[in-house]
Specification:
The protein has 366 residues and is of the alpha/beta class. It contains 14 helices and 12 strands. Keywords: Membrane, Transferase, Transmembrane, Transmembrane helix.
């Protein structure tokens, strides 16, 4: 029991130290020029997000921008709503989608097409369900210049609408803050120490083009990580920041969407490695599920020592939740979150190994 508690306390200390290397996107770095930024938004079946997205984009306080939206053959009212909400704002351009090319993932193809129409010295790829603070682009370009970074990215503050959201999505921050050595991610060019989030990707255009852009990752289901790794392999710097003050995201509407979204990405995200899946299952079961079982035993038998490991796991999760602006009450569900995550991991494994398709926004991928 003492050994288990010592390990868990060590994890807490490590995570606190690790977070000291994660700069906030907000910056007081002074800009002396305001180069053109292309804000690029892929949209497919995003009718529910159009109004908020366009209102947010109109409210951005960076004057030298162009906003290009790729309407990717939606089967809902996305296109008509775009025209209605944009009105006569000349900063906007809407591109009608082309048929998806063979061998391409839908979002990656959309981002590639967006780049063909962009003219900015910087490219800000954002998802339709993202909300940017008025000065986010100013902060991003300041950080890019301050750190000489070819890509500035980060995991948004997430908003939740269903129970599975609340269990799974906060684990994205937890896994990155816990497992990724952020100092190596931000201050070396080692591809293996890389994290990125496709909801907010801010590129320096020349570097993006040099490595082949989204065309270089056209068949990837986790294109954000893969393009960041390619940048590093080519000698460019990738900067992971804490963007939760100025980038918010509402990823999923229903538990089914959450289930499908995580199933699509999670096994691919660990390189489709069965040994890695087994290792993660053993690691998280022993260190984040077993303490809950001990805790139940300790409560029912009035033995407080058995409760302590679970309390430490909650504290560990709480450290990450505070950093990510996640309600800390969700920290109490760390063991349930791990169970849900492992269930989806193994569903993703089965889908991959049996050749079954992942379905997302009406398209199927393997």
């Amino acid at each position: 029991m003492i050994i288990l508690m010592s390990i868990l306390l060590g994890f807490c200390i490590w995570t606190i130290l690790n977070l000291t290397f994660l700069p906030n996107l907000k910056s007081h770095f002074t800009l002396h020029e305001y180069p053109l930024i292309s804000v690029l938004v892929p949209m497919r079946n995003e009718a529910r997000n159009v109004q908020n997205c366009i209102a947010m984009l109109k409210n951005i306080r960076y004057e030298n921008i162009e906003i290009i939206i790729y309407e990717d053959q939606s089967t809902d009212s996305t296109y008509s709503l775009l025209l209605q909400e944009i009105g006569d704002d000349t900063r906007f351009q809407v591109i009608r989608g082309e048929p998806l090319k063979e061998g391409w993932i839908g979002k990656v193809h959309a981002c590639y097409q967006l780049r063909q129409h962009a003219h900015g010295r910087f490219l800000a790829f954002i998802d339709a369900d993202v909300t940017l603070h008025q000065h986010t682009l100013t902060y991003a370009i300041a950080r890019a210049k301050q750190y000489n970074a070819s890509l500035v990215t980060g995991f948004p503050k997430f908003h939740y609408t269903n129970w599975l959201d609340k269990m799974l999505i906060p684990m994205m921050h937890f896994i990155v803050y816990f497992h990724l050595p952020i100092a190596l991610a931000n201050f070396t060019k080692i591809p293996a120490t890389t994290a990125a989030n496709g909801a907010f990707m801010f590129f320096e255009t020349t570097s993006y083009d040099q490595v082949g852009g989204h065309e270089a990752v056209k068949s990837s289901l986790v294109e954000d990580i893969h393009i960041a790794q390619i940048l590093k392999r080519n000698g460019h710097r990738v900067l992971l920041t804490n963007v939760t003050d100025c980038v918010h995201c509402h990823m999923y509407e229903t538990s089914k969407e959450t289930w499908e979204g995580f199933s699509k990405n999670i096994f691919v995200g660990i390189g489709r490695s069965i040994p890695m899946a087994l290792g993660l299952t053993l690691f998280y079961s022993l260190l984040y599920i077993v303490p809950f079982i001990f805790g139940v035993y300790g409560v029912t038998t009035w033995q407080p020592l058995f409760i302590l490991p679970f309390i430490i796991t909650v504290i560990h999760r709480m450290i990450c939740d505070i950093a990510s602006k996640t309600p800390i009450v969700y920290s109490l569900g760390i063991s349930g979150s791990v169970v849900a995550l492992l269930c989806i991991l193994w569903r993703s494994v089965v889908l991959s190994k049996t050749g079954a398709s992942y379905t997302w926004k009406g398209r199927s991928y393997k």
